[in-house]
Amino acid sequence: METVETENKVLKGGEFLVAESDPMSTFIVEDFTSEQTMVLSMVKEFIDKRVFPNSAKIEKLDIELTKQLLKEAGEQGILGTSFPEEYGGFMQNFITNMALTELFAKTRSFSLSYGAHTGIGMLPILYFGTEEQKTKYLPSLVAGDKFAAYCLTEPDSGSDALAAKTKAILSEDGKHYVMNGQKMWITNAGFADVFVVFAQIDGDKFTGFIVERGWEGVSIGAEEDKLGIKGSSTRQVFFENVKVPVENVLGNIGKGHRIAFNILNIGRIKLAAGVLGGSKLTSMLSIQYANERKQFKVPIGSFGAIKYKLAEQATRIYVTEAAMHRASRAIDHMEEKLKEEGKSLGEALLGAAEEYAIECAILKVRGSECLDYCVDEGLQIYGGMGYSEEAPMAGAYRDSRINRIFEGTNEINRMLSVDMLMKRVMRGNIDMMTPAMKVQKELMSMPSFGDKPTGLLADEQVYVQNLKKLFLAVAGATVQELMQKLEKEQEILMNLSDIMSEIYLCESAIMGTIKAASVRGEEACKEEIAMTSLYVNDAIERAGVHAKNAVASWAEGDTKRVLFMGIKRYTKHDFLNTKDLRRQIADRLLEANDYCF
Q1: In this structure, CATH architecture of domain 29-146
Q2: Which of 220, 224, 409, 429 has its CA 20 to 30 A from that of 534?
Q3: Helices 304-340 and 94-105, interaxial angle, to 10°?
Q4: At how many degrees (to 10) do helices 526-552 and 458-482 cross?
Q5: Into which CATH architecture does domain 432-592 fall?
Q6: Can you give the pLDDT at residue 450?
Q7: Alpha carbon 14 to chain centroid distance?
Q8: CA 7 to CA 242: how far, in whole Å?
Q9: pLDDT tops 60 at residue 366
């Protein structure tokens, strides 16, 4: 495949499937500036000194304590890192805010309260509010004097958000809307003062509103008894003939979907940062327990079965982080570019997140599944103690499960990533036809055997190029055969999505490792190289199974035979000694007694 040259060599959203990426365009920890490091250190100190010592109380749903800590965070400027100074903020770039999200993730339920307030609660007002709305609401929210919540989900509308039944009817004098309905699963509902609420005007105009808790007709249900994240407030919110002033309409009438879906793009990649923080904490706890716990007079970390788990945890974390850093840098780059073109702050970030919506969906899925793997195996490493609430894994196990449902279920996000890709191809934003035709011709010819590539991770780079060809061959033939019927074939859509995800994560890990090695040297990055090779090795096998399942769902005869030959060709690789690679990675972790990458 030919390299696509773009400004700063950052590809457009979804373009990773048809182009080569420059490793220097990604982000690694060495790219943090001194100012970013200072901000992260300040927040870490707040978490270490104020949040962690109160974790047990927070997990017992001490709402007053949560409010107090959020207020303290506001006083230190920590609630305002996504907001301009004119609203009391302490504006930082997107990469810094992603790193802050990762830090807060280790605070368990408190991270939900913080994230719902500073993210989905406040950002819609910043991005879509009028100047009057921003001036009225944001300063007190940034300061931690008041708190925000986001009301989208209803009993009969979850993934199908536009099917909401909450209604808003304009009064005869045209001064307010009368709102009736209910929302459920609302984080921070127990103490929020300001709600971003979505309702139907005239039955079919899905619209956002800013609603205050103190208004007559607003009432709050009891706390939900949840499986996990028990320290975060989750309640239903009811609206009974609530008079909402017309000046509190958020954005344009009938355009509430722009708010909901654009905020979700940001929410998805931020969730990836959050679960990454949780995964690292779980890995650290697993490593330390493996060093401490002895059976047969030796630490259990010396056993191969435990080393497998520790290494696999670390590998999935490392690769997910590389993909998150890559997408974060791309979004940050696009945001700055749009600002230079005259876009407002909100338009720039939302436009950037929309550009990389495919990558955001991929990261939401793979990040949440990475954490689920880590806590599941972490509990297994703890053995019987893992099942006890006295040890950390039981709570981590329960807390993790919601992430595959938050911000759109993983099933929805898988199908959405393919849908968004196809729409971009149809609009001409991505040229997939030209490379797809090349792949079709290649399938009908004898394979070529060129010189063996050289350089760091050269084999892995060729393997990823072949995975891209695999996707183009399978997706191209599938779309050509099924056309409009494809949207009904959810299993096939998820197969295609998983191939896309493997490509993005494999390539991201390769990019991050090559760049890190260019800074630290290959010897210093030998475990990072091992994790990258290990992940690519196994990803090829997984992608091959997804491809076979997709093709076998519809193809027969010669078509099936040719495509299966292509799958075999594009998934051919020298299978590595994964046992030794995992032992190498695990030994490094056990020596450090921490996740150290």
Answers
A1: Orthogonal Bundle (1.10)
A2: 409
A3: 150
A4: 20
A5: Up-down Bundle (1.20)
A6: 62
A7: 16
A8: 50
A9: yes
pTM of this structure: 0.95
Residue listed under structure tokens 């599944």: 369
CB 196, CB 208: distance < 8 Å: yes
377 and 312 Cβ atoms separated by less than 8 Å: yes
* SS3 of 517-542: HHHHCCHHHHHHHHHHHHHHHHHHHH
Whole-number pLDDT of residue 7: 43
Q: Are 159 and 413 in contact (CB under 8 A)?
A: no
CB 27 within 8 A of CB 328: yes
**In sequence order, what are the residues at sequence separation of 6 or more whose Cβ sits closer than 8 angstroms to the Cβ of residue 565?**
443
Closest CA to 508 of 256, 317, 301, 257: 317
Domain ranges in the chain with CATH number 2.40.110.10:
149-256
Residue 86 has phi, psi (to 5 degrees) of -65, -15
- Range with lowest mean pLDDT among 29-33, 107-111, 161-165: 161-165
Q: How far apart are CA 172 and CA 53, in angstroms?
A: 54
Is residue 453 scored above 80 in pLDDT? no
Q: Select which of 355, 369, 407, 527 is catalytic.
A: 407
**Which of 361, 370, 371, 315 lies closest to 106, judged by CA?**
371
> Cβ neighbours of residue 423 under 8 Å, at least 6 residues apart?
none
Structure tokens at 119: 């993210």
The rounded percent of the chain whose pLDDT value lies above 90 is 91
Q: Which residues contact 31 (CB under 8 A, 6 or more apart)?
A: none
Length of the chain: 597
Query: In the predicted model, is pLDDT for residue 296 greater than 90?
Result: yes
The C-alpha atoms of residue 241 and residue 177 are separated, in whole angstroms, by 9
Q: Is residue 4 very low, low, confident or very high in pLDDT (cuts 50, 70, 90)?
A: very low
Helix (H) or strand (E) holding 195: strand 194-201
Q: Any catalytic annotation for residue 407?
A: yes
Q: Where in the chain is the domain with CATH 1.20.140.10?
A: 432-592
- Of 427, 478, 437, 460, nearest to 534 (Cα)? 460
Mean pLDDT rounded to a whole number for the chain = 95
Phi-psi region of 201 (alpha: psi -120 to 50; beta: other; left: phi over 0): beta
CA distance 358 to 419: 9
Q: Tell me: pLDDT of 1 over 50.
A: no
Average the pLDDT over 423-433 and give the result. Answer: 92
pLDDT at 3 over 60: no
Q: Which residues contact 522 (CB under 8 A, 6 or more apart)?
A: 456, 529
Q: What is 149-256's CATH superfamily? A: Butyryl-CoA Dehydrogenase, subunit A, domain 2 (2.40.110.10)
Q: How far apart are CA 56 and CA 64, in angstroms?
A: 14
Instruction: Say how far apart CA 69 and CA 112 lie, in whole Å.
Output: 13
Give Cα 148 distance to the centre of its chain: 22
* Helical H segments across 12-108, by residue range: 34-46, 55-59, 63-75, 94-105
CATH 1.10.540.10 domain range(s) in the chain: 29-146
> What CA–CA distance (Å, rounded) separates 573 from 365?
26
Instruction: Let me know: does 179 contact 167? Beta carbons within 8 Å.
Output: yes
